[in-house]
Amino acid sequence: MAHQAAPGAGTRLFHPGFEGHSQISARTLGFWLYMLSDALLFTALFAAYAVLDTPMNAAGGPIASQIVNPIEGFWQTIAILASVTCYSLATVAMKNGNRAGTALGIIAAMVLAVVFLAFGFNDLATLTAHGNGLGRSGYLSAYFVLILTHAVHMLIGILWMLVMLVQIPRYGFNEMVVARMLNLRMFWQFQATVWVCVYIYVYMIGA
Amino acid sequence: MQVEVPGPWSPLLGRLTLDAIPYTNPILQGTFAGAALAGLIVIGCVLYFKKVGYLWREWLTSVDHKKIGVMYIIVGLVMLFRGFADGLMIRTQQVIANGPNAPGVLGAQHGFLPPFHFDQVYSAHGTIMILFAATPILTGFQNIVVPLQIGARDMAFPYMNALSLWLTTAAAALVMISLFVGDFSAAGWVGLIPLTELPFSPSTGVDYWMWAIQISSVGTTLNAINMIVTIVEMRAPGMTWFRMPVFSWTTLSTNIIGLTAFPVLGVALALLGADRYLGTHFFTAGYGGNLMLYTNLFWIWGHPEVYFLILPTFGILSEVIPTFSEKPLFGYVTMVAATFAIAGISWVVWLHHFFTMGSGPDINGFFSVATMLVGIPTGVKLFNWMFTLYRARITYSVAMLWAMFGLFLLLAGGLTGMMLALPAVNYTVHDSVFVIAHFHCMVLLVVASAFAGVTYWFPKLFGFKLNEGWGKAFFWTFSIATIIVFAAMFALGFQGETRRLDWTFNTAWKPMLMVEEIGMILYVVSLACFAIMLVVSIRNRAKNRVGADPWGTSRTLEWLTPSPVPFYNFAVTPQVNTRDELSWRRKHGLESAKPAGFEAIHMPSNTGMPVIIGALAGIWGFAMIWRIWWLAGISLLGIVVCVIIRSFNKNEGYHLQPQEIEAMEKNLATGAIVAEQPVRTHLHHVEAH
After folding, report:
1. Is the separation of the CB atoms in B398 and B468 below 8 Å?
2. What CATH class does A26-53+64-204 carry?
3. Secondary structure, 3-state, B491-525
4. Measuring CA to CA, which residue among A82, A60, A203 is closest to residue A143?
């Protein structure tokens, strides 16, 4: 090939001491890619919801405007955004090397996430109790599965926070713990973003 | 909340009863005897040669990308054999069960397979060949070759790499278990809706199909993340993007497809699962379900999946053809551009799988044009390979023969694909075996290039070449068989034979069905040649030992390391100066230049956790299929606990000391094999703060 230069005195054939990649940067990129796949998962669920959000697919059961409660959804939105804020404050404390502050931020984030989930599960339980469970119609199936998939992600996040609450006092802020904390921050903000989409798409447009 | 299932259910065993085991079926008795014998021979050999510890230490717990790649390919080849056996049964059934007076045996009215069994056979054939044969084999090549080609020591996440392998293996095991416990899906590999819904498929067959795909697709998604991060982050110094070998480029693009497509499949199957397990109405025929929602979601994954298979295939061709043409690849940059063009277009063509569903002329028109657009980058690639071959010094070695046969199949499959892209033509031949012949040309292109890859990279991994004579016998029997079977199948398609027929009513099809059967017999001969090739090659391995560069004309970095590749890949990371680094070094007489000295290498430790998680995932799948809720709960909890335990693992690998590397490199120079890792104590992280 024309652009191939001939080797000269300065040509290196080997690179001793090449450090390779940094663990945190690889883990961060990997986690972004995971979230891309998770985003596709929610995209497919939103598409399914859009297809099934018609009076025909409600099969005689309630349609969106009869079941969604935007006021309750508003409090849920406040709870989840506050949870993200608390977690972000925890990472600020981590930056200052403050273990107690980090733990406090994580606990606050968990409590707010539980509040968020309690609203959601209460909503689904009430619907089911009124005979409008996920087996009632294609529309309700899409509604329940969308909300529940998001809730499962939130539960995984809470479990992850519990693990971090054990690992921070045990290991301090070593490379692995910091990488996990930063990935969890992305994960948590991503779940809040998904919820905002749910709130706009299901609650606000639906109402 | 539990959906009512027909038949007995007990809390302890779920739906599992003795009736689920088809011990009265003579075909399955024979299969079971064969599988049990093969299993006993393998286990017996491992025990007799006292290799249990070796197997556990060096293979099952390995996080070495080369060994994981080899295990992927072994899983793929075993499943390829299973899928071929299914194909042989399909062809034999159709030729026997031809015409109203066709004889019937073993309880079948015509042929030897009753309709329900036949439906399971073709469903298993498709599912296995695409997801459990082609995918693992290609993933295996990517695992083996990409880190070597980009000058890396390992994948970005070696532990996750092993996890991907064992999830795929667990899923493949579930498909195999369905042979002997319960049944497999009888609704096609695409899961024809609403046939896959509980009222129409009340047995566990669809559940086997669904959970096996679900588990393996988690493995594939994790592997896609791993491959992308490896290529982005771990290239050797000097390996700029446009110095990267084309196989690495195709791996990057194919895994971007995999990462974005597999979640959609996950959703499609999860919603089907919700219908079957929770009683929802996503795809049911009543209560507001939407059948086309499934079909669209499935093919939004399904078409990118096709290119997920074909792009690494193109990568293999782009490595093999220049090597045996003694020329650089023609049009490297256009090859890369074409790869990403194909990957991009793969997202907007899915509807061509159901032109006849009546989406209207505008939508069909859009997807028709989009489909035909694929022909442009693919044509660019084909011409690039042709111009590489043009006035080249071609060596007709086995790998090159496979690659050239691949080009032929690409032409045949590609041109018939262009015909099918026209909705008008599609309406005429849809669901006929013309379509089957078309896509078998494409997937056999995958197989042909897989065998090109096996022949080409085998000496790199094992240090000796495969026997050329038997390799050629395997090649010619296999390729002639392919032409016989699928030329006849194209003809049958034009004669109007539709797909998935357990009984071929039209006696006019008999001659071509006979021709196909002759081709199938030739395939059996070719498999024997393959087995003999392996045996002869392994027996004569001492005679066929090769050095770092067995072909003498290869161009990329993987041929710089000794063969077999030591577990640390490169004693010193190479500095890349140009594209086709090795051929450049050879041209300037630098190919055997050695580094001046060695430095300590950091290596990851082996771990048994991925095998354990894989086994738990397999048990969880089995429990979900049979609705054994307690077992499903325990195994899922086990997986979560394993993941958490792993996160507390402070083992950060070990350092290989310079004097050890020096000793091993000296041994390598005298032809010794350094593939086994030394036993050593592991590093533990110094606790911060």
Report:
1. yes
2. mainly alpha
3. HHHHCCCECCCCCECCHHHHHHHHHHHHHHHHHHH
4. A203
pLDDT tens for residues B382-417?
Answer: 999 999 999 999 999 999 999 999 999 999 999 999
Token pair of B94, please?
A: 């159709």
Flag whether pLDDT at A18 surpasses 90: no
Asked if B683 and B652 touch (Cβ cutoff 8 Å), the reply is yes
- pLDDT of residue B674 exceeding 80: no
Q: Which tens digit of pLDDT belongs to each residue from B452-508?
A: 999 999 999 999 999 999 999 999 999 999 999 999 999 999 999 999 999 999 999
Q: Amino acid identity, residue B576?
A: V
Q: What is the mean pLDDT of residues B595-603?
A: 86
Across the interface, do A172 and B689 touch by the CB < 8 Å criterion? yes
Chain A contact present for B129, CB below 8 A: no
Of A13, A21, A135, the CB nearest to B590: A13
* Residue B584, min C-alpha distance to chain A (Å): 8
Q: Which of residues 88-147 of A touch B (CB under 8 A)?
A: 97, 99, 133-139, 141-142, 144-145
- B-chain residues near A40 (CB < 8 A): 260-261, 263-264
Tokens standing for B536?
């002869």
Domain ranges across chain A? 26-53+64-204
Q: Which two tokens stand for residue B316?
A: 């293999």
Does the pLDDT at position B689 exceed 90? Answer: no
Round the average pLDDT of chain B to a whole number and report it. 92
Predicted TM-score of the model (pTM) = 0.95
CA atoms of B344 and B40, how far apart (whole Å): 47
Q: Do B644 and A163 touch (CB under 8 A)?
A: yes
Please report the number of interchain residue pairs, chain A to chain B, with beta-carbon separation below 8 angstroms: 185
Mean pLDDT value across residues B342-351: 94
Three-state DSSP at B162 gives helix
What are the beta bridge partners of residue B468?
Answer: none
CA distance B287 to chain A (A): 5
**pLDDT tens digits for range B621-648:** 999 999 999 999 999 999 999 999 999 9
Residue B682: pLDDT band with limits 50, 70, 90: low
Which B-chain residues 249-268 have CB contacts (< 8 A) with chain A?
Answer: 259-264, 266-268
- Hey, is the C-beta of A6 within 8 angstroms of any chain B C-beta? yes
Residue A11, SS3 per DSSP: coil
**What residue of A is the nearest CA neighbor of B597?**
A16
Interface with chain A: mutation pick from B225, B255, B259, B569, highest number of A CBs within 10 Å: B225
Distances (CA, A) of B362 to B101, B182, B369: 46, 45, 11
User: Which domains, from first to last, does chain B contain?
Assistant: 18-561 (1.20.210.10)
CA end-to-end span of chain B, whole Å?
Answer: 49
Confirm or reject contact between A36 and chain B (CB < 8 A).
yes
**B239, B256, B282: which to substitute to probe chain A, counting the most A Cβ within 10 Å?**
B282
Q: Do B288 and A40 touch (CB under 8 A)?
A: no
Q: Give the separation between CA B258 and CA B217, rounded to whole angstroms.
A: 9
